[in-house]
Amino acid sequence: MADSDPLDAVFGALAHPVRRQILARLAEQDATVNELAEPFDMSLPAISKHLRVLEAAGIISRGKRAQFRPCHLEPEPLEAVAGWADQYRHIWQARFDAMTRAIETMKGKADD
Q1: How far is CA 107 from CA 25, 53, 78, 110, 112, in A?
Q2: What DSSP character marks residue 66?
Q3: CA distances in angstroms from 26 to 60, 85, 110, listed in the order given
Q4: Distance, first Cα to last Cα, the chain
Q5: Please, which residues bridge with residue 31 across strands?
């Protein structure tokens, strides 16, 4: 897997809703495993597995503060995903523009 595109690991990590919720939490501030596990109805080992996936993708890192190892969001891999998706912006922007024109046309006909 060393030859694979780094985006593959990031997209794989983002594919699970629990991991996306963990990232949303870490976007607010660093947190320990216990803090991250709190809102979920799953075991600490299960949360730890999700964290390992995120860490392997480079999306999070773990620091060291006394006996705690808080998790920290690393934005660079997410910026790479945003850059990849941005190359398709012109496609959806054109579709939104066409939809706006169609709605405006329908509104104009309704006003007649």
Answers
A1: 42, 49, 39, 5, 9
A2: T
A3: 9, 22, 48
A4: 62
A5: 71
Task: Say how far apart CA 71 and CA 40 lie, in whole Å.
Answer: 17
Q: What is the DSSP letter of 58?
A: T
Q: What are the tens digits of pLDDT across the range 18-77? A: 999 999 999 999 999 999 999 999 999 999 999 999 999 999 999 887 777 899 999 999
- DSSP for 14-78, please give it: HTSHHHHHHHHHHHH--B-HHHHHTTSSS-HHHHHHHHHHHHHTTSEEE--BTTB--EEE--HHH
